Please model this.
Amino acid sequence: MRVLVLGSGGREHALVRALALDGAVSELHAAPGNPGIGELADVHDVAVTDPAEVTALARKIVPDLVVIGPEAPLVAGVSDALRDAGVTCFGPSQRAAMIEGSKSFAKQVMTAAGVPTAAAVTCRSEREAEAALARFGPPYVVKADGLAAGKGVVVTTDREAALRHARASGTVVIEEFLDGPEVTVFALADGATAVALLPSQDYKRAADGDTGPNTGGMGAYAPLPWAPADLAEQTLAEVVRPALAELSRIGRPYSGLLYAGLCLTSQGLRVVEFNARFGDPETQVVLDRLGTPLAGLLTACASGDLASAGGLSWRPGAAVTVVIAAEGYPARPVGGAAINGLAGARRVPGTYVLQAGTAIDDAGQLTAAGGRVLNVVGAGDDLAAARARAYEAAALITMPGGWYRSDIAAAPAPGTRQAT
Ligand code: AMP
Ligand code: GLY
Model:
């Protein structure tokens, strides 16, 4: 079959890689892709948030399946345009993707569905924000309402900083601080049936020890040996199925990947956020462990046929990914640094490198062209082995100014997050 993947990050490289390993896939395309993706797929220079451009590309390629990686095309209505054009598309409708596109909408759905989450107030003025900060007390959690590419949330004990973020963001959701380890559970949903994938953990803060600013995610691992064995089942029962039922009830049936970002608090599981797509970098480790061929699974999901897809199979062992970021990330990433050493890294057994923000310059040199530049993935019999391999490969890569966290998967049961 012929598959087109939209997006250009490490997540999309992981999707393309898993699709390339699926014997059912005979032809792979990506838009806009990146140099790493270009080694596996034909890349097309198309604005993926433009429904007309994407539909025109699909008319040209005639794919059996389009997989939408990032949230921006979903929120822009690209999946609707493709389905209207008769294309099988993995990714929720614009109306259903609002579960990620608006924090206040997500809260409404959770409240109506009885999904456990932090108590929250939507604030549209400084006066309302002040009242909400006083109600919840420190540490303060202030979230911009719309899409913010991982930068819309401030968690701080500094009331002035919390208010500044509220003022700068317009409509905000201010909520109760949740305390406990954070985990990610992906669920595939076809409008009626849902299945959970392997729980994973992402490291959102920039610096070791979960300090520094929030980022898109600096590393991840799966599985979670310390988590309750029934975490995926519990998430389906308490979070995913009630949320999907509520979305159907309000005329926004959900098909695609529902990302549940959870906090395991002393009072039980709470939803921190929903996303309408695969997480980045969690996808890199979850797909590494998936034994079920990906193309058939996503096609079943996109065609409302998940019930007949059968159970999922998972490879034993563990995977760890370490993100190599550009100098200045997340505030002001510097582009252009030359990336070298990939050939050496490739020789470390059980590892591979996925590309995110990369480009090839006029001299043919691979360079940094984004905040998160590379994902080094290591797999092994257990987390310690996977981690050692990922770091061994990462150390062989050079990129001036580039940096990465040194504690990904080092302490599998993370302690309390720090407020900045
Ligand atoms: P979000 O974009 O909603 O996932 O928030 C980004 C990050 O902010 C989360 O991964 C958490 O680390 C942190 N965060 C969000 N909401 C809360 C909360 N209610 N309590 C504590 N930390 C939070
Ligand atoms: N890794 C967090 C996210 O994809 O939103």
Q: What stands out?
A: The longest strand covers residues 255-265.
